[in-house]
Amino acid sequence: MKFLSSQQNLSGKTVLLRADLDAPREGNKILDDSRIKASVPTIKYLIDQGAKIVIVSKNGRPKGWQEEYTLKPIAEYIAKLLSKNFVSAKEYSDQYFNEVVFFEGDITKEGAVGEVKKLSQKNIVILENIRFYKQEEEASPVFAKQLSSLGEIFVNDAFAMMHRNEASVSLIPKYLPSFAGLNVEKELNALNKLLTLKADPFIVIIGGAKISDKVGAIKNLGKSAEHVLVGGGPANLFFLAQGFEIGESLCEKQELDVAKDLMRNYKQKLVLPVDVVVAKAKDHTQARVCKPDQVLKDEAILDIGPQTTLFFSKIVKASKKMVWNGPMGLFEEKQFSHGTMSLALIFAARCKGYAYGVVGGGDTLDALNKAKVLDQIDFVSTAGGATLDFLAGENLPGLKALE
Ligand code: 3PG
C-alpha cells in the first residue's frame, strides 16, 4: 500500500479525495464532528503540497436524492475548519479563489465533470453526497471511472468506509494511482499495534446492541485474549442461550446458534455479567438489581449490575492491552449508566502508561465522551464496522483496492 505521507510532489496535481465526512445530524446541526475533524489533516497536507482537491463523501444512508442528507452543511463546516469561505457552485463567479466550493449538481449530467474540473483549478471542491447516486452502492465501474476522471491521483482517507464495496471506495484505484490518506495510516498503525503488540493480559470488551457485527472480532481476538468481557445486547443473547428468561431485553435472537457456538468454543474466555440492572420494559420504572436468571417477562436488562462492574473493573485494572466496542447498557439514561461510566473511567485510567487501549464504535465514543475521558484513550478509532472487520482479520475491499 502506498501512503500519502510519503508523497511530496503533488504541486499542481489534482487529487480526488475520498474523505469520510459522515456525521450524525439534526437538520443542519452536526451532532458529532469527529470524522469531519479527522479528515482535516489530510486536506491540509494536500493544501500544503500545492495539490488541487476534489472531495467525495457520503452522509448517512439516503434513498436517492434526499434534501435532509445533503452534504452542504458539512461542506460549510469544513470551510470553517479550514478558515476558508464557503460558496455554492450555483453562486460561483471567477472572483472566488482558494475557497471551498460545494458542487450541488449531478456529476453524471453532461458537462458536469468539466465544470467540477474547472472549479477545482482554483478552489477546493466538495461534491454532493455520493450516496445520492445509486451507482455508488451498486459499485458501478462506469460511475467509478467517471469519478476518477475528476483527478489525476486518488487518496482514500475514509477508514470507516473500507469494509464497503462501493464505487468511490474500492473501484477508483483501478483507474488512478492511489494512496492511503493520513487518517487511514493512523488507523492502520494503531490497529496493527493492537494486533501485534506483545502485552498480556489482553482483554476484549464487547457490548452495544448487536452481536452479529462483532462475532468475527470475538473469534479472531479471542485467540489471543485472556478474557472477553460481555455486556449489553450480546450478554443478553448469551443469557438466552443458557435458557434464562430475558424478558424484553435487547437481543438478536436470530443469532442464538452463533452465541451457542461461541459459548462452546470460547467458554473459558467469555466473562458474562453475574448481576444486571433491570426495569419494567415499557417505561423503565421499578429498576432493581438481580441475577441474570431472575429477570421477569415484562422487564428489560438495561445495565450490568454493581458486582459485575466491580468484577469487570478488576480485570481491566490487571490488563496490559485492551479493546472496547459497545456500551454495557443504556448509558444515555442516568439510572442505567453506572456500568458503562465506571468501566469508562477505569479503562481510561489504564491507558497511556499501564496498558494500550483502543476504542471503536460511535456509541462507545459517546459514552467515553460523556465520562469526559475520551482524550485519555490511547487510540480512538473513527470507524465502527470497518474496525471490527479489520480486527476480525477480514479483507476490507477499500484497503485491498489500495494494495
Ligand atoms: C460506518 O459508520 O460504519 C460507515 O460510515 C459505514 O456506513 P454505512 O453502514 O452506512 O455503510
UniProtKB/TrEMBL annotation:
One of the GO biological process terms: gluconeogenesis
Cellular component, GO annotation: cytosol
InterPro entries reported in the protein's UniProt record: Phosphoglycerate_kinase (IPR001576), Phosphoglycerate_kinase_N (IPR015824), Phosphoglycerate_kinase_sf (IPR036043)
EC identifiers of the protein: 2.7.2.3
GO molecular function: ADP binding; ATP binding; phosphoglycerate kinase activity
Compartment(s) where it occurs, according to its Swiss-Prot or TrEMBL record: Cytoplasm
Catalytic activity: (2R)-3-phosphoglycerate + ATP = (2R)-3-phospho-glyceroyl phosphate + ADP
Main location: cytoplasm
Annotated positions binding substrate: R35, R131, R164
Residues bound to ATP: K214, E332, G361, G362, D363, T364
Pathway recorded for this protein: Carbohydrate degradation; glycolysis; pyruvate from D-glyceraldehyde 3-phosphate: step 2/5
Keyword terms of this UniProt record: ATP-binding, Cytoplasm, Glycolysis, Kinase, Nucleotide-binding, Transferase
HAMAP family: Phosphoglyc_kinase
Subunit field text: Monomer.
Annotated family: Belongs to the phosphoglycerate kinase family.
Protein name: Phosphoglycerate kinase
Native species: Candidatus Doudnabacteria bacterium Gr01-1014_77
